[in-house]
């Protein structure tokens, strides 16, 4: 069983930066691939970024590539999503999740956090 708790969301203006955190329970955090997903109001959930267990591999959605950075601190059981140059279209509930393999498919992630709201005003 893994519990994930996101934090760091909020209301910002276009062009601002924000860092999301996802704290995980469990002593085997480094074994999990981690991903960030987002779900805009009234729309489907979409992949944002993923990172391998030791952080050596990362993957990003085209819409955030060059603006967002995923990282992790296994000593703190935490994964981060640094978001820069935010746009109104980045507004969504952001959730982190664990997966047994490196994937961008939400269906392959098994544990999810409750999500944190990010709102970007124009």
Describe the 3D structure.
By secondary structure, this protein is an all-beta fold. Helices cover 0% and strands 48% of the residues. It has no helices and eleven strands. The strands form two sheets. Strands 2, 4, 5, 6, 9, 10 and 11 form a seven-stranded mixed sheet that branches. Strands 1-3-8-7 form a four-stranded antiparallel sheet, with no helix packed on it. The chain is globular, with a radius of gyration of 13 Å. The model has no long low-confidence stretch (mean pLDDT 96).
Mean pLDDT: 96
Q: Order of helices and strands, N to C?
A: EEEEEEEEEEE
Q: How many DSSP helices?
A: 0
Secondary structure tally: strands? 11
Beta-strand content: over 45%
Oligomerization status of the protein chains: single chain
- What's the end-to-end separation, in Å? 40 Å
Query: SS-based structural class?
Result: mainly beta
General shape: globular
| Helical proportion, percent range | under 10%
């Amino acid at each position: 069983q893994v519990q994930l708790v996101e934090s760091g969301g909020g209301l910002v203006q276009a062009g601002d930066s924000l860092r999301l955190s996802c704290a995980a329970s469990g002593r085997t955090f480094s074994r999990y691939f981690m991903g960030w997903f987002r779900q805009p109001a009234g729309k489907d959930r979409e992949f944002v970024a993923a990172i391998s267990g030791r952080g050596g591999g990362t993957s990003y959605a085209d819409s955030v590539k060059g603006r967002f950075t995923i990282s992790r601190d296994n000593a703190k059981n935490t994964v981060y999503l640094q978001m820069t140059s935010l746009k109104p279209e980045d507004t969504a509930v952001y959730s982190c999740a664990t997966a047994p393999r490196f994937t961008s498919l939400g269906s392959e992630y098994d544990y999810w956090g409750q999500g944190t709201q990010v709102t970007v005003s124009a």
